[in-house]
Design a protein that fits this description.
- By secondary structure, this protein is mostly helical.
- It has one domain.
- Helices cover 24% and strands 0% of the residues.
- It starts with 10 loop residues before the first helix and ends in a 5-residue tail after the last helix.
- The relative contact order is 0.31.
């Protein structure tokens, strides 16, 4: 998801990844327009390194 000019983390990504979030260890959000991440992101992807 790097270099996508995102202003927020896409809600659809949460829905699509519901069953696989525990297997995701790295997400790159580099070079986007996001100012912060929501608590939902933190709790959904709590296993990130």
């Amino acid at each position: 998801l790097a270099n996508c000019q995102l202003k927020a983390f896409p809600v659809g990504i949460y829905r699509v990844m519901t069953n696989v979030t525990e297997n995701i260890h790295v997400i790159s959000l580099a070079n986007n327009d996001m100012k912060s991440l929501t608590s939902k992101f933190i709790t959904t992807f709590c296993q990130l390194h």
